[in-house]
Amino acid sequence: MTERSRSPYRPTRRGRGGPAPQARPKDPARRAAYDVLHAVQSRDAYANLLLPVTLRERDITGRDAGLATELTYGTLRRQGSYDAVLDACVDRSLRSVDAEVLPLLRMGAHQLLSMDVPQHAAVSTTVDLARRVVGHHRSRFVNAVLRRVSARDLDEWLSVLAPERDADPVGRLAVVHSHPRWMVQALADALGEDPAGGLADTERLLAAHNERPRVTLLAKPGRATVEDLTAEGATPARYSPHAATLPEGDPGALRTVRQGRAAVQDEASQLVALALTRVPVEGADRLWLDACAGPGGKAALLAGLVGQRGGRLLAGEVQPARAGLVARAVHRSVGDSARVVVADSTRPPWRDRGFDRVLVDAPCTGLGALRRRPEARWRRTPDSLTDLVPLQRALLGRALDATRPGGVVGYVTCSPHLEETRRVVTSVLADRGDAELLDAAPHLPEVPDAAVDRFAQFWPHRHGTDAMFLALIRKH
């Protein structure tokens, strides 16, 4: 990547007596990345939502857009490692560094340690940006710190800063692969690894979290096919019969996506919904419920499938704004088969025992989507489970109440954390005598190695998908 991508902006010539020329924005890619990183840090913005809007509003395209994307996501993914390096290069605690300055230091560290940018260019462009956004005085501080960072490459820094493998294997992985320590331990537990016996599989997972994922698309059943997507340059996905992938580029540029006949959705998200639809049920199979439907990806898939069977989907979402996203996602589904309601599924407006199939895609820590939402690893704490686990149990219990005898519930989280996956399911079923856990494996023939102990668990490093969890439960 070149050290300075050409800006799409052009200055205007000033004619005699004409208006003053417009200032040409300098280094728009780095400025856009800085603004997004600062918003993520200061007001808990989501990079995957804010960055596309920023690029579009500022008309940043091509190589500049690619540079801004790499600077934003690369910096967020490796933030933990960079903070360890920066902490060794500042004269005081990194926590005392101004909130406006810290994203500059992290961006500069990313260019110096992980990008093919010459050292002088990485330092000078970051210092130039610092002068414009934080002033000359603080830019001198940025310059001094980044020159210290440039004294070693990333491997050399990590060999100095990371704990010894035998002395503290969890701490070492946390520094080397840029994850909070508690998260490394939780993921190791989910993989069934103990630090005393080695964490090789955990390390592969953490490394996968720091890789850029491919864009996966859903061809909405009854409205588009995978062949429609491949005709626009996509490639059929590995597992899901409704999925195709893009190696790069903006999915919004595809006509099928612009028309609402396809949408971005991870392959594992598609498969857990498909598995629910494959479980045999006796009697009627015409009324399905998506109890936590926002933002609507799984609802769009379910609406298409139930519409093809002549049935209907009720999609409930507690937040009105997200319910609006669901409505757009299911718009013009087969037979207009979906109805969207704003509803709290722990206190639902629908009757008990009324649905043949119920999906509970429960709110969770999101540890399964760290490739796509890298900032989540720095926002979540072990305390996040305090509120989430009781909510997950309540949602699953009410979903079972809503299911008719003989019907089936799919409990899904985008997290592999044991507390919000299998332990939620086992604790709820232990208090009920009207439901049983089914074996997920027969309903996911495409991915036999995802099934474990009757559950299904996808992994980025094994399947190239988000770490989605699925339990299938039959109502007696």
From TrEMBL:
Biological classification of the source: Bacteria, Bacillati, Actinomycetota, Actinomycetes, Streptosporangiales
Catalytic residue positions: C414 (nucleophile)
Entry function: May act as RNA methyltransferase.
Transmembrane stretches, start-end: none
Domain SAM-dependent MTase RsmB/NOP-type, chain residue ranges per copy: 191-476
GO biological process, one term: regulation of DNA-templated transcription
UniProt xrefs under InterPro entries: MeTrfase_RsmB-F_NOP2_cat, MeTrfase_RsmB-F_NOP2_dom, NusB-like_sf, NusB_RsmB_TIM44, RCMT, RsmB/NOL1/NOP2-like_CS, SAM-dependent_MTases_sf
Keywords: Methyltransferase, RNA-binding, S-adenosyl-L-methionine, Transferase
Entries under Pfam families matching the protein: Methyltr_RsmB-F, NusB
UniProt source species: Thermobifida halotolerans
Family: Belongs to the class I-like SAM-binding methyltransferase superfamily. RsmB/NOP family.
PROSITE patterns in the cross-refs: NOL1_NOP2_SUN, SAM_MT_RSMB_NOP
This protein's name: rRNA cytosine-C5-methyltransferase
Residue segments, region Disordered: 1-30
Signal peptide: none
A single MF term (Gene Ontology): RNA binding
Residues that, per the record, bind S-adenosyl-L-methionine: C292, A293, G294, P295, G296, G297, K298, E317, D344, D361
